[in-house]
Each structure stands twice: as structure tokens, then as C-alpha cells.
Amino acid sequence: MATDYVLFIHGVNTRSQREKPDYADELFELITKYIDTGYELQKIPLYWGNVNKEGEDKLLCKLQSEDGCWQQLWFKQFRQTTLLQFAGDAASYISRTVGSKVVEKLNQDMLKGLKNAGSQDRLHLVTHSWGTVILFDVLFAERWNDENIEGSKYVQEIRRHFYGVEPNAQEGIRVSSIHTMGSPIALFSLLDVVKGEKQAAGAAELTQSQARQRATHDITPNLEALLKNLGKKLNGNKLLWRNYIHPGDPVAWPLNPLIYSLVDGLSQSVNVEDVVTELNGFDYLNLLFSQTPLALLLNGGNAHGSYFTSTKVAQTIVESIEKAAKQPVKAAKQPVLLNVS
């Protein structure tokens, strides 16, 4: 019987779990609660939250020195937690040094989680916040093809796990559904130079090869390749992609219909739906002030972390797992185990 692997990758709101990263436990328990009997589920929680702790601590120490004006500032707790972690992760991950440390840690977790996976099993990606950006960057960004980057070797190992992703596109486990929670991934449309950048005024758009040389963080060409490979494997059935948005989460951005403009023919190979999650704990007074900066300060953090306890998110993931299991796929010539140890 095929196994459904549920791979989680967290965002900035779980950074306090330095010693015991159990951020996905409650959501996975809800998934197992609602799924029909007969499914074999395996949880793979990736964790990168402690990679840059030393750098954050040094920065805060300098900011909070007696010679500065830190004590005069408002929202100090917000600055030194949510804001520092989100902005700091964004800046440091893009760097070669910290980014390489992150992908090394992700590769270790993935090797452990997928060591017994086979080509007939299914993989469901559940990503949160900045974790979505990290995973998509690892799988699809051109910058990791540069062998001079220390993390390149780890990225290539990670990509070998995924069917449809180079360097071994015909091997690995098949991605059967994608679930992005509180995700800013829509902003990657700003990096889609293939469709938008010109060589010169009035000239034709860049070719794929030219664009890759200029935009090493562009994820769209390799994302398109993955979806095309999956489309062939699924005999025309569509990959299920659900994007969860809490109304009070300022980090969450819609994908539909924007995502279809990023990749040619995307609507033929993937079914993307935005899912607005429940307003747990809200009252009419909260709704009255929902469009104000006050609402952002008071509820933005809670909303951003709410997906891991959401019944609606869990039930939607379950629906996707059950639908994916019923999709016919082209059988491989022979079973291929993932090349992991």
C-alpha cells in the first residue's frame, strides 16, 4: 500500500521552538483525525529555526546597548521577535552563508524522513509563511546550480527526492498536493523576468537561457518544468494546490488568478484555490476595526500562526490527500526507491 508523506516546513512564527520543534504536531493530529481509515500517513517536519540564532542574538545585543535609543522605542517586543525574525530571515537566507546552512539542515531532515519512501508513494507539501519561500527557492531557484555555493550539493540532494525536478526528474517521490499557509509566495511574480524583462527598449523578451543568467532567484522556469512532468505522470489530472489565508494575516497573499499568469499553461496542470480560514475568537468589535493598523498590531501575529490549529485547514488537506490517492498515474517500468541513506 502506498504511503502518504506529509512534509511540513515552518515560517517565522515557530522560531521559539529551539529545542523541540513540535510546531506541526497539532495540525497533523487533526489530519489523522479526519482522514478515512486505510491511509498510511507519515509526518516529516523540517526545522531550520535555530540556524541563525547566534546572528540574531548578536544583533539584539548591539541594539539594546546603553549607548543606543532602544529603550525609547515603541513595540519593542514586536520588533525583536516577529519583525526581526521575518526581516532577518529574508535577508540572511538570501546570503550564501546562512542559506547554505539552512539547506544543509533541511537536507538532513529530509534524508531521515524519506529514507523508506518509494516511487509509488505520495508527497504532500504543507508550508507556512517564509518556509514557503525557502522550499520553493530550494526546489526551483537557479542560484543553487552554482557549484561554488557551499549549499549547492545539499540542494541537489534535496531535488533528487522529488519526481519531476532536475537533476533526476524521472526518479523520486511524486508531489501530490501543495498547501501554502500564510504565504507571501505571490510576490515571486516580481521576479518573473522571463515574461517581463526586455533586452533593450523595443526588443523581444528574454529567452529562458538569458533570463536565468540575469535572475538567479527566479523560480518560475523550474516550477513550470515540475508541473509539466507531473502532468504527464497524472495522465492529464491536475495537481491540487490550496493556499490558506486568514483575513487578519498581513503576510498571506492570494494566488488565484495571479499564479496562472506566471507559468504558461499552468491552468492545464494545476488546480489552485485560495481558502479563507475561519475567524476564531473574533467578535463584532474586532471586525469593526479589522481594516485599521491597530488590528494588525493586536491580531496579526495570532492570525499568522492560526493555520496549525485550524480545523478547516486540516479538513482541506485531508480532502486533497484522498483525491490524490484516487488519481490514476502512469506506472513506472519498475519500482524505484529513492536514493537516500
Question: What is the element layout, followed by pairings?
Answer:
Layout: E1 3-9, H1 25-34, E2 40-46, H2 53-63, H3 76-94, H4 96-113, E3 122-128, H5 130-140, H6 152-160, E4 174-181, H7 193-196, H8 208-214, H9 220-233, E5 239-245, E6 270-276, H10 284-288, H11 293-305, H12 311-326
Parallel strand pairs: 1-2, 1-3, 3-4, 4-5, 5-6
Helix pairs in contact: 1-12, 4-6
Give an account of the 3D structure.
The chain is an alpha/beta fold and 341 residues long. The chain has one domain: Rossmann fold (3-Layer(aba) Sandwich), CATH 3.40.50. 40% of the residues lie in helices and 13% in strands. The protein is built from twelve helices and six strands. A six-stranded parallel β-sheet has the order 2-1-3-4-5-6, sandwiched between helices. About 6% of the residues have low confidence.
- Provide the number of structural domains: 1
Q: Mean pLDDT, rounded to whole units?
A: 79
Pattern of helices and strands: EHEHHHEHHEHHHEEHHH
Principal-axes geometry comes out as globular
Structural class designation: alpha/beta
Residues in helix, %? 40-55%
Major sheet description: 6 strands, parallel
Give me the CATH architecture, please: 3-Layer(aba) Sandwich
Distance N to C terminus: 22 Å
Task: Please report which band the strand proportion falls in: under 5%, 5-15%, 15-25%, 25-35%, 35-45% or over 45%.
Answer: 5-15%
Segments where pLDDT lies below 50 for 5+ residues? 193-201, 292-298, 333-337
- CATH level 1 class label: Alpha Beta
